[in-house]
């Protein structure tokens, strides 16, 4: 068996990352004022990491006040730099997952990876009938890598929390940890692929790849290959294409939420493509799916009414349903600031951009105001339910801005939510999770 240098490199890098993240946390304590240099150090530290922490950066960047803005920028700019697994290693993984006869599962199999994945890599292959397949192969031992990263993340968040005293990070950490651990299980992801396919079957412009369960395992996911471009490819397309794609994306994300409480928690640009004609969205990567109780979804609708009628009591009711605690008048006012920003396009019955300015500056300005107010109030604990809901709203919002999409978001929201019923919802959820 040849010596596996790839794996060695990777392990070494993880070890370095882990060590230097700890150092970083210490530095953080001593140099509270210099965010820019800390951000630089963080980028350097994490720059070589191919793994779950990149995702965490993207999640944290959407929660106002969770991390300083320099950190957010540093984390968002991280690119995967790890070398891919070589063919010999890939073959070994295939054999380990599918057995000695792995070759008989495929008509052909490309030796070089087409795409990097956060816990592995994606190869193109063909099934025995000649249909194109995407095969996501997980690196070995990712579970211990994730645990090590999570420990470091916890430390970093704690240190920041203590120095800032505006947002309590415990619940957010728990939520992220739960979902990162779940992401290790490709069988779970395969089940969600099937659930989402079913929940989106009446959306003519959304494609969810079909899973090949016979050639999938806990660490290997085989599905239909879907051809497409990243959405950035369509930024200069004609207006009707851009609007159509934005609308399709909106429906793809929120239909499963309002029908069955299932939310694809990672609207990262790599997790969907558009077919070359700009007509359909291929929805990918069901590694991070959040399941919501009906009461949470009810909370979304109650908050909508509360903001519409400026009803403080109703808003409090919604935040409570979401799991916020110790809701003082001032805290509700502060949460309303953020909620108003996110709900504004849904409340405004006209064709418009998702946010009036074509950049996310306004979001950052509001996040800053919220930071000051929360600090003055002695902090708040965002409930774990909030994490991915917020991540999705902010993430999709920024894509709608990039597409310069002009839509009546109010009408889209009404269309999605008018039939919300607790009973039907639970039934759908049960079916989707069966
Ligand atoms: N079914 C598919 N067809 C074509 N490309 C795919 C498919 N699934 C994934 N990919 C490509 O592989 C990349 C990584 O897959 P993804 O499921 O997003 O992994 P991860 O969960 O690690 O982010 C995607 O960004 C996409 O470019
Ligand atoms: Mg992905």
Describe this structure in words.
With 434 residues, the protein is α+β, with helices and mostly antiparallel strands. It has two domains: 5-83 and 143-163, no CATH class; 228-434, no CATH class. It has helices at 5-30, 35-46, 52-60, 69-76, 87-98, 142-164, 170-182, 186-199, 239-260, 294-308, 312-322, 329-347, 361-377, 384-402, 409-417, 422-433; strands at residues 108-109, 115-117, 120-126, 132-138, 206-207, 220-224, 262-264, 272-274, 281-283, 289-291. Strands 1, 2, 3, 4 and 6 form a five-stranded antiparallel beta sheet that branches. Helix 1 (5-30) runs parallel beside helix 6 (142-164). The longest helix is centred in the N-terminal third of the chain and has 26 residues, at 5-30. The two termini are 42 Å apart. Adenosine-5'-diphosphate binds at residues 115, 117-119, 122, 134, 136, 209, 223-226, 270-271, 284-285, 287.
The overall pLDDT, averaged over residues, is: 84
Percent range for β-strand residues: 5-15%
Bound molecules: adenosine-5'-diphosphate, magnesium ion
End-to-end C-alpha gap:
42 Å
Low-pLDDT stretches are: 1-8, 10-33
Total discrete domains: 2
What gross morphology would you assign? globular
- Helix content range of the residues, please? 55-70%
**Which sequence of SSEs, written as H and E, runs from N to C?**
HHHHHEEEEHHHEEHEEEEHHHHHHH
Radius of gyration: 22 Å
- Class derived from helix and strand content: alpha+beta
* Total of DSSP H or I helical runs spanning 4+ residues: 16
Largest sheet: 5 strands, antiparallel
């Amino acid at each position: 068996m040849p010596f596996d240098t790839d794996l060695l490199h990777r392990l070494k890098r993880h070890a370095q990352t882990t060590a230097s993240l700890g150092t970083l946390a210490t530095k953080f304590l001593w140099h509270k004022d210099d965010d820019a240099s800390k951000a630089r150090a963080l980028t350097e530290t994490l720059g070589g990491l191919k793994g779950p922490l990149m995702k965490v950066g993207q999640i944290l960047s959407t929660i106002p006040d969770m991390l300083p803005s320099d950190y957010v920028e540093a984390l968002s700019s991280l690119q995967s730099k790890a070398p891919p697994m070589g063919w010999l290693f890939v073959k070994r993984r295939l054999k380990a997952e599918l057995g000695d006869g792995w070759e008989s599962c495929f008509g052909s199999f490309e030796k070089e990876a087409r795409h990097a994945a956060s816990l592995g890599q994606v190869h193109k292959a063909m099934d025995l009938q000649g249909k194109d397949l995407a095969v996501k192969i997980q690196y070995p031992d990712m579970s211990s890598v994730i645990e090590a990263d999570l420990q470091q993340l916890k430390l970093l968040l704690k240190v920041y929390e203590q120095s800032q005293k505006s947002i309590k990070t415990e619940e957010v950490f728990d939520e992220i940890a739960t979902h990162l651990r779940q992401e290790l299980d490709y069988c779970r992801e395969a089940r969600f692929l099937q659930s989402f396919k079913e929940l989106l079957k009446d959306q003519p412009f959304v494609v969810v790849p079909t899973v090949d369960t016979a050639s999938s395992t806990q660490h290997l996911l085989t599905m239909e290959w879907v051809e497409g471009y990243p959405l950035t490819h369509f930024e200069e397309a004609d207006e009707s294409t851009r609007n159509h794609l934005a609308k399709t994306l909106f429906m793809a994300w929120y239909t499963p939420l309002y029908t069955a409480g299932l939310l694809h928690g990672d609207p990262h640009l790599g997790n969907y493509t558009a077919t070359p004609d700009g007509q359909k969205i291929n929805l990918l990567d069901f590694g991070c799916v959040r399941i919501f109780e009906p009461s949470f979804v009810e909370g979304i609708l109650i908050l909508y009414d509360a903001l519409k009628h400026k009803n403080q009591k109703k808003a409090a009711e919604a935040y409570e349903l979401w799991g916020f605690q110790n809701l003082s008048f001032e805290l509700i006012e502060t949460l309303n600031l953020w909620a108003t920003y996110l709900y504004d396009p849904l409340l405004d019955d006209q064709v418009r951009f998702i946010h009036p300015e074509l950049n996310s500056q306004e979001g950052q300005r509001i996040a800053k105001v919220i930071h000051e107010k929360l600090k003055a109030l002695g902090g708040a604990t965002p409930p774990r339910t909030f994490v991915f809901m917020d991540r999705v709203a902010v993430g999709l919002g920024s894509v709608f801005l990039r597409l310069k999409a002009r839509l009546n978001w109010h009408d889209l929201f009404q269309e999605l939510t008018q039939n919300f019923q607790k009973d039907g919802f639970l039934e759908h959820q049960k079916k989707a999770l069966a």
